[in-house]
Amino acid sequence: MTLVLPVVLMRFGMMSGNWAQHSFVDATRADCDYVQSLTCIDNHYNAIAFNDGYHTSHHLHPRRHWADHPANLVTHAREYGKQGTIVFRGIDFHETWWLLMTKNYDRLAKCYVHMDLDTPRPAQHEIVALLKDRTRRMSDQEIAKYYSPEARATRLAKAS
């Protein structure tokens, strides 16, 4: 119990948290760092986990110091909004995971932070629809478009 249980609990916590961090992928732009992960702000977890909730910022600049993530979000809020980054306030990845497992999109929508400063906040049902669309199962064609060996080779060739 002193060896196996802590390992199992820790593994579960890390896997469910990581799954939640990457659960809102925009299938039409799965190669865009702004829509491959979400950001969770104003929660206790960030205070004890080195701002892990600012996961989109980490994807955009993996070597950014953890203390700089909140300022980056504030400075680039308009770009986060234009790109369609999902931001939640007051919940962390573990609560996000639980809300997704229980399909509680209404609670997620209440925590949603509208980042596009040039448009009005969508209605609750529109936010729910967005969150459901972002968590839908991707088709085999969508997966192959972004994650096949050929697609990766093409992205690497463009980057160099």
UniProtKB/TrEMBL annotation:
Domain of life where this protein originates: Eukaryota
Coiled-coil stretches: none
Keyword entries, A-Z: Signal
GO biological process: lipid metabolic process
Signal peptide residue numbers: 1-20
Domain spans labelled Fatty acid desaturase: 4-85
Protein known as: Fatty acid desaturase domain-containing protein
Gene source species: Allomyces macrogynus (strain ATCC 38327) (Allomyces javanicus var. macrogynus)
